## 1
Amino acid sequence: MGRLTIATRASALALWQARYIRDRIGELFPDVEVELLELTSRGDKILDRPLALVGGKGHFTKELEDAMLEGRAQMAVHSLKDVPTFIPEGLSLAAITRREDQSDVFLSHRYAAIDALPSGAIVGTTSLRRRMQLLRRRPDLRVRDLRGNVNTRLRKLAEGEYDGIILAAIGLERLGLLASIPHVERLAWMIPPMGQAALGIEIVADDPLARRIAAALDDEATHLCTWIERDFVSAVGAGCSAPVAVNARFVAEGTIEVRAMLGYPDGSEVLYDETTCTPDEASSAGTAFAHRFIDRGALELLAEAEKRAFKEERPERL
């Protein structure tokens, strides 16, 4: 019998994900005893301002990675979209689970859809990616920061602080919360972030049991697509909070479609492109696609986007 400790954030969604992986390991490796190590991440502690204003990367992963490097855990379960493209030495992003519904959803107690919102309506989201795409489509709306766990965000919506909010469908589905919202619109036009709706399994690189288990949890098709996305984000130098949307998906056997958008948080200037590749080309497709954006000024655009991000929430220098 082997033993494995999984580090996880203590939020409701993170615990759902960790327990799901624990149960999958139980099915695949019934002789392995699995326990969870619950931790509070920096991202869970910072609730008074957008993470994009705090700086740095790995707001939701550092404490879990520290636990593995200190020998307190051999594996961590992350929402892949929260995992920076840089992995600390001694650790490995060894598996990516099968991706589920990648949609962003608009939620409201008053309006059936984003296009039904009146001019000046308040929409809650902290994501610069969502802000960029929403204001590109509806520049007449007001976007206000939205922090807290999923239940806190839904409570703020119910209390009337927002006319609508935008969240990832997958988290709401996993927690069984969609049925409680009067109006739900799936936003097919909104490009997801790198890694949305997949779980990233990070392990201690030289732990043979953790590596064997991770190999059994990995989904090859999702791994290929999300690695294209991660390579794209790495090449343009964007952090987890940057206004960058990128999504790769199989559209036919042997064909992967990749779409990406990046630009200013207010949607006033964006770059968009799409391409296709084969699975054999996936290892270089993300970087090559990113260079098409770089040739069009993506690095300069993102540098300016960082200056503009949440400008109304930054204290002006005197």
## 2
Amino acid sequence: MNSHLLQVARLAWSPGLRVTRAEGDTTTVLRRTSADLMDRPLHVALGVSAERARELDARARENRGAVEFAATHLGEQEPSFLRLVLGLVEGETSAGVMDLGTVLEGAPPVQISRLSSSLSHEIRNPLSSVKMAVQTLARNTTLGDRDRRRLTIANREIRTMERMLWLLSEYGRDTTPNFESQPLRTVLQEANAMVAPELAERRIELEVDEEPDLPRVRMDGSRLRPVLAQVLLNVAMGQPEDSRMHVSLRQGGPGRVLMVLKDPAAALPPEERGSLFEPFGTRLARGAGLSLAALRRVMMSQGGDVSAEGGAEPGMVFTLTFAA
């Protein structure tokens, strides 16, 4: 077992968002000693924005054991992701903090794969029970408008969790792909359908520009669709409501077909260039922090690849390369 899995820090803070207690391995997780963290502003201690610190404080006060992920910059260290379990302990707002980059540092791919598979399995069963309960409640014809809105929100969050589990499961999968010859547009439309409710809420439509007479591509659509759907949703969430998401399908080099996805809102900081497709390696991989890593893993296992172009200014282009 990676010894870093045991390295966790715990912080508590005042209503004024200043640290009142710092325990555990704060040196590894937060790059400061416990004494040095005392009375610091929460956003400074965590390396996040003041607005993000206020959001975390609000979630902690709900006292529901909420799990949040936060991109952090601590001193001159490389940016990383923190996993925070938020709640109230003896009346104090607090968080158990783990540095996911430290957890995975030096871990072999098989260890990351097994961790992903284990988490996916452990979460999927209780989530299925929650989903069934929400669907049962939704069939109650006596519910008022407010309760129905709450159930709509619950269903949306359940779908989000299901997609995150797909990413964890896919990143942990190590089986031979089941190849089929399929039109690339069909797979794109099927992936888009998986996130259609979220796109409809924001009135975002998929616009596809396809070159004529494109050959079919060789892929395992059942493995590609969920991770491609999450990437599409990531792009859509960065766009304004009532807009279009642009994807082009065109011929690449010999025996290759390209899918080009434009993300007008995303920017790639220079320090994240080398870790863009690594687990938890970039803020562009929203949600579980695995969307881009899982996408590359799937593409490469099927004889393709994915690349990204962009800089510090908004405007990214992702190119998926498929074998024809």
## 3
Amino acid sequence: MLAVTLCAAAPVSALEQAPRSDAARLLGADAQGDNWTVGQAVLSDGFVWIFSVNTSYGAFQVNGLRRMKDRAQELRALALLQKMSRSEAFGKALVKAGLAPIRFGRDLVLDPFETVGNLLSGVGKMFDTVAASARNPGGGRDGLLASITGVTKVERELAQELKVDPYSDYSPLRAGLKDVAQVTALGSLPVTAGISFITGGAGLAASSASTASNVSGLVYSRTAREVTEIVIKKLTALGVDAAAVKTFAANRFYSPADQIAMAEALEKLGATNVNAFIANSATAGSFDVAKFNRYRAELLVRDSARLGTLKAFVPVAGFVVNVDGAGRLVAAFPFDALFWTDAVSRNLTRLSAEAATRHPKRPRVFASVGTLSPLAQAELKKRGWQIMKLD
């Protein structure tokens, strides 16, 4: 009650420090697994939760709740691959293939925004310096991930059984998929047979909260090049100009699974000026931001009706928001929890000011998946926004 009282009387310049949360509260069973443990104290940059993760393959941080759910699914898959590699059937396949035993967890390569101790996520950086990510879109991907066209049919089959993205940016998983797929192919061990020895005949279940639960079947049945061609056709049909399509398709911070998910979501949404959203998304300068853009596209189509039926995309203050069927300006984001920190205040004040200048007669709705602190709600309302909480 004290926080609410303080917020009501707070001046426009009032700020707050994002609090810590607890890993078990945020993640439940995903806070720990056979090969990972999430640090109990979870920080925030005002936009998303920042998780510290210790694994058998190295320590790193994960920015964002849904991205952490994805990592947990990938770590489960990696643990299963290791168990599979120790089975008698796999050992025989290894001998038949004439290959050395697999060494898991090598070559850990991280998103620069997900190195331990970085207290600003890629999402926070994106909001703080909107144009910065446009300098080098798609750069920085390691050699393994840059060769997505080399991902084999067996790797895709294996990834499908494990309910993970075959083009994951988590390098230990990518290496594990590649190595195990090579043994199963050369050692004449069917993928399903190899996994059934460990799981009792079933593949790995996907958490409904993870991206794995929404991976398009096209990702598993088509090559990366074929998926990219489908994405290009879909976006072109939606009116996205050739330059934006080319830049988006070439940005390797997006996996083919991310790109087809976004294209399919935008198709279902049916809003006009998709070009604005894709041109903006094409500038993503980290895996962190690319995933955020994917999550946002999926959020918009999922909650379009609740948001007033989104009809169009419009650029505002370096970002792209929507106009609904009633003509309201709708800014909907998949934030974990929004706190009125200095960075949040600076950027949402800028967004609010330009929205008011460019669209003075439109009512404005600000929607977020995560909770908004009392101060964040109060300050956004002062700036003319109606607040909506999404699930």
## 4
Amino acid sequence: MPKTSLQGKPICITGASSGIGAATAIACARAGMPVVLAARRTDRLEALADQIRASGGQALPIACDVTDPDACRAMVDACIAQFGSIFSVFANAGYGFIQPFHKSTDDEWRGIFETNLWGTTNAIRAALPHLLHARSGHILICSSCLARFAIPNYGHYCATKAAQAQLATSMRHELRPLGVHVSSVHPVGTATEFFEVSQAIGGRPDPVIQQTRRFIQPPERVAKAIVRCLQRPRPEVWTSLPMRAIAAGITLCPTWADWAMRRARPVEPESEGAPGLDVDREPPA
């Protein structure tokens, strides 16, 4: 497939105030894409927009809570009004928290699905009619390596990431004949706020999270891979071949995965209210 020029093709990025979202916005702007920066932390968005403009790029910051469908439609409308069209949407906003299933509440589960999954669908639904009309465009969904396997105390987060990955796969087959590409992004641990907060459970290091230190990557590495995917679309974006191999191995031999988890001896959170985590994108409200 020939390389697609991204010059002048606008993208909306949710959860753009930090981590992978912010890094992707910078990378896309460098590739010539006008960027709509969407998140709730508007002070960070303004600073990021100034940084992009100072480097010669185009950026529009807009307050957006992805759990609100109207806010997502306003984001897309603002993109079209400012830049004339929309080419891509990167559904990236999300959060997570540390809590075993038996201590988590229905409200906690509904809340994380509301943001991570329904927030994704809200952003996509707002952009999709325009992409279908143009018979062109690219939808990106930020899932995780944890879409392929789960770790203790993060079942809720892993469940949302798996749902996003399966949604992307299904949509990819549905929309390819209509001219729209769909890709899922599967980061490993990134050097962002999420990883810093997730180092401790109940004041003690989380052994499973500690095991991922060797896979930590800067968000800029993920951002560059996303830009390459926009230029040459592919089904999934992975930035760690070893982690992808581990995910495949776990699928083939779940007994081995259980043995590895037992070796890690994960610590169960002691408090009823474990800390919320910024999953690289946006913190919970």
